[in-house]
Amino acid sequence: MSVLKPGRGQVACAPVAIGRCFEVAFCLSLLLAVQYGACGRTSKRQSPQQETMPGPDINDVLRAHDNELLAIPGVVGVYVGLLDDGKTSCLKVMVVKKTLDLEQRLPRSLEGYPVVIEESGIIRPMHPD
Questions:
Q1: Is the separation of the CB atoms in 11 and 25 below 8 Å?
Q2: What sign for the dihedral angle of Cα 13, 19, 22, 28?
Q3: Which of 29, 54, 93, 97 has the largest count of CB atoms under 10 Å?
C-alpha cells in the first residue's frame, strides 16, 4: 500500500482510507463554518459607541460637565438626548442663539458622546396665573 504525499493544503491518506479522509475533512469544514457563524455575529446591530470598550454612563458625563457648559455665555441648558437616528445617545446643549462663536467654543464630543447644539432662545420660568 502506498501513501500519498500531501501538497500544500492537502491531507495525506492511504488509498483505502480516502473515503474516511473526506468524511473527516467534511466534518471539520462543517464545524468551522458553525463556529465562525456563531462567533462572528451578534443578535442585534450595535452602534460604534457600544462596540468599543464601555465608557462612562452618559448621565455621569452630563453631571461631570454641566456646570462648565452652563458657564459659557449664551448656553441656557444641557440635557441627554438622541441624535436624528433616534438611537444614538448624545448631549444636547441649548443656546439662546446659535452662533459661529458658540459652535467654536463648545466641544463636538465629551468622553465619546456627541454634543449637539440646539437654538432654544431665552428660557424663562413660567409664572403662575
A1: yes
A2: negative
A3: 93
- Phi (first) and psi of residue 60, to 5 degrees: -65, -40
Is 124 a member of any domain?
Answer: no
- Domain of 9 in residue numbering reads as 1-41
Find the helix or strand (DSSP H, E) in which 60 lies. Answer: helix 58-70
Interval 82-100: pLDDT, tens: 999 999 999 999 999 999 9
In the structure grid, which three cell numbers stand for residue 1, read together? 500500500
**C-beta of residue 93 within 8 angstroms of C-beta of residue 69:** yes
Q: What is the helix (H) or strand (E) element at residue 115, kind and residue range?
A: strand 113-119
Amino acid (one-letter) located at 56? P
Would you give the distance in Å from CA 36 to the centre of its chain? Answer: 22
Tell whether 1 and 54 lie within a shared domain.
Answer: no
Instruction: Please report which helix (H) or strand (E) contains residue 114, including its range.
Output: strand 113-119
> Which pTM was predicted?
0.57
Is the pLDDT at 71 greater than 50? The verdict is: yes
Residue with cell 471539520: 28
Q: Are 79 and 92 in contact (CB under 8 A)?
A: yes
